Request: fold
Amino acid sequence: MPFWAYDPEEEEWIDILAYREPKEELAGRKLVCPHCGVEMVIRHGPIVIQHFAHRMRCPYADWRKPTTPEHHAAVTTLIETLSRDPFWGVATIEPGRPLPAARRIPDVLATFPDGLRVAHECQISPITPYRLDRRTAAYIRARIPVFWWFRAGYLDARPPDLKWTVLAWQRVILELGIVKPPPPDPAGHAYHTMPTEVRLLVRFPDRPEVYRLDGSQGLPSWVHRRAWQWVLWMPVYDMWRGIREWYGAEAVYRHLGPVWRERFTPEDVEGMLVGMWEIGVMAAGPEGRWMPQYLPDFDFRHWSRWLRGQRGEEGLQESPSILSVRYHCEWWTERLEGATTPEELRGVGEQIRLTEHNPEVRERLRPVYRRRMRELKRRGDGPRMGGI
Ligand SMILES: [Zn+2]
Reply:
């Protein structure tokens, strides 16, 4: 059920649930689907909650989940709250439009003055970790970080892999505390009821406190900086656009635009880089510096399994740079050992010289390369082993 329409003449979003008698109050206005631009009609009856309808199916219907009054209440609360919030207030906060690059229509889209767009999705219906991962990755490919909001308690009630997937990306738990009126007369029609209130809750995996984004008191600044760190993804990643160099968090911070320098600190940038490294987007290099991961055919799933294995049960705290060196050495060693002729080995060696940016890794691979070359040459000189 669509609850939004757009009035192109007044350039105004129309929320049909904000009207008591929409058919009369909106009479004479041009109302189109905000996604495809086709004119919409108002449906409103004794049983059916008021909503807009297409005469034909919206071509973008698959780009978003169908909405309900509950979901709509969450979205409108989020838009109102973010628009007032000091962190988000400088951005234009609107219901989402189709994003062809991600093939999605986000529930809310924030556009910051420097052009960065950030999506918010109110995920009230169930979702699998796989889908959440795929959708988040599609947004990232479209250069849009996305925050997922869940119905309060849903993540804790699910097997933990869903929560891990959420945290791997956004590193904060965002929940919608939906307060509903008492159930209507059980004999009546059980259509969706409007919530009386939607609370926007923020918490972190390592702390017990729950913060209310829509509360009357402002949140401490560290909560903002930690909760919304994920918006730094694009500005941070852009540091390496077109170049492959090692940079520290301080240098990246200095390179950020004023919108981000005002909101974050170099330590937040460092935290963001560690988060990006944990999911395999960044490689950690010498002296606390970073670069986007550059291994050819890098496999994100293999990396996260490997990292979990290294950390073990106790969450062993070796530095990212030590772990990155180890991973890269293992990765290349496997290819050096896999070479079956001197020519093949030379090919791998050449690839290491061209693509491995960490001098320490190259240094450690040299003896492996030499030993493997001796082995292959010996094998080539010796008597040929016959086939079967
Ligand atoms: Zn449409």
Observations:
- The CA atoms of residues 32 and 38 lie 5 Å apart.
